[in-house]
Amino acid sequence: TIALTGGAAGGSIAALATLLFPVLVMAILSVLVALLILAARQALITVLVILSPLAFVLFLLPNTEKHFEKWRSTFTTMLMVFPMFSLLFGGSQLASYIIIQNTNQLSVVILALFVQAAPLALTPFLLQFSGSLLGKVAGMVNNPQKGLVDRSRNWSKDRADTLAKRKRAQNEGGNWLRRPTPGRIAYRRDMARRNREDRKKSYESQLDASWSGDERSKTIQTDMKTSELRQSTNKAVVERIFETQKQLTPELMAMAGTQRLEQAHVKQLQAAEGARWDEAMTGKVAGDASHPFGQFSAAANTVMREQNIADNNAAIAQALQKSEFANVLSKDIDLQIRAGGIGGEKGAIKVKAKAISAVVEAGIEDVKAIKTASDIKPGDIEEMSREFKKAVDTGDLASLRAHTDMLGSSKDAGINRLRELLIKHEDKIVGNTEIIETYRHHVNGNAEINQGAEDIGVWSRDAFDDPKTGKKAWRTMEEVGKDFITWKNMTSSSFAGMKASTQKIALTVKDPKTGRWAITDEIARDIMSSPVSRANLKEDVKPLMKARAEGRLRTDADGKLEEVWPVR
Asked: Which residue pairs from 524-531 have beta carbons closer than 8 angstroms and sit at least 24 positions apart in sequence?
């Protein structure tokens, strides 16, 4: 047994020695290298210290600072090697001692000894590590964004600049004699600095302007533009060559087809997503687990409603701004002249016309809303008349325009009642300067009224300069209706298209100077000879038109139409 144990122990020691031999060789080499490095470090530090005066001279001389930086980097690296080696060696000694104190095995003891000698093997790496560590430490200290020193210095400088500028700004106003002397000096120096800087910028701008007009600059710019054009042309040629090649190459065409198909798929998928989102915005799919946006439906509907309210508010505000400006512009002569510019009087007239048109357009939506919401039955002339009178009394332009349209579209009875209302309430309408021009413009733009009642249409656009007041004035509705000029250019077709009440008024008018009827016998014969025109005449107007065509229609003492003798 003793022999076997001894043999086993001898075999283990032999195996362990075989295993440790390479390690011992490496350890011996590491010790030699470490000693060599430390000796070289000591010698190099001595040389660097001797060269330090020259290094500082290089730091002061221009264009030689890089040599000083190299000297400083090497010197600091060498200084860092020994402290780091000492720290590492001390740590390894402590670790080795702890391992030895806590083991009875020979192999572990040998490992502890290797740990103790490990720093010698790491010595060559300390040179590189010390250099990078120095760089990191310098960065942490001097980095403008993260470095402690530079951040503190920058904060202090920024704070000082802020306080200095505040003091200068406080010294900007007030009595100079009450300011502290340092404050006055600092303020003047700052103003002088700003003056120099701004003047420099001004001079640079002037030089840039002069250079841009210099022939050399023009030549350079032309050359640059030519180069850009050549480059663009070459790109276009390449595009054309590629497109031609693509047309002739099935593989490229297949790739192009795939690209277009995928793009179409993307558009289709995006459109489908948009449609699903639009559905969600209605709020109808809230809580629907099968809908992709069901969980967002309620919130999306709320956002959409609020957005629509905001858009509507903005639209109303913008429309009101335009309407208010147009309304002021349509009445303010001085503003019209200013807006007319070099157009003079004609320009002012155009501006006024556009302003009135803008006011009319701005009220169209209000008129439509009143007509849509009105519960007046079609053809109820009496109710329309009451609302018309109410609008005149209250100066409600939108309501007045709406019920004028409603009367104008109520056949002959509505046109005739509108004429009567205008005659009866003309003083109030014309006297209200806030609405008269806009109202006349609206009436003039109503096609039904103009086609059915020539006298009302003429009244809406008939204005003249009153020599007594120097202001715009209008003839009354009755004056327009009895005026020969209103009807003298009436053609047979236009007369036939008017309402019966208007035709009867036209038949009563003649030229007071010549006694010639506005609707002559010739016009009457043309109307009666035309099947279409004759068919448009009302039954109570046809006999009168026939009498005029035969020269038998006259007016009595009250201005009413009568036939000279009965027709047999």
From this structure: 524/548, 524/549, 525/549, 526/492, 527/492, 527/495, 527/496, 530/492, 530/496
C-beta atoms surrounding 149 within 10 Å: 13
**CB-side neighbour CA atoms (13 Å) of 500:** 16
Residue 464 has pLDDT above 80, yes or no: no
Model confidence pLDDT, tens digit, residues 317-330: 887 777 777 777 77
- How much is the pLDDT for 10? 46
pTM value is 0.46
Burial profile 360-383: b = 16 or more Cβ within 10 angstroms, e = fewer: bebbeebbeebbeeeebeeeebee
Look up residue 89 and give its two tokens. Answer: 């060696």
Rounded Cα gap, residues 115 and 188, in angstroms: 72
Pick the more confident residue, 13 or 539: 539
| AA letter at 312 | N
Three-state secondary structure call for residue 393: helix
Structure tokens at 74: 């090497």
Largest separation between any pair of C-alpha atoms in the chain: 173
8-17, 348-357, 494-503: range with highest mean pLDDT: 494-503
Say how far apart CA 492 and CA 533 lie, in whole Å: 8
Contact 191, 184 (CB under 8 A): no
Q: What is the CA radius of gyration of the chain?
A: 52
527 close to 537: Cβ distance less than 8 angstroms:
yes
Higher-pLDDT residue of 300 and 24 is: 300
C-alpha torsion 148→154→159→164, nearest 10: 150
**Residue 517 DSSP label:** B
Q: What is the pLDDT of residues 124-161, one digit of tens each?
A: 666 565 554 444 444 444 455 554 445 555 666 677 67
- Listing DSSP states for 306-369 in one string gives HHHHHHHHHHHHHHHHHHHHHHHHHH-HHHHHHHHGGGHHHHHHHHHHHHHHHHHHHTHHHHHH
For residues 256-276, average pLDDT: 94
Three-point CA angle 430, 432, 436, nearest 5°: 55
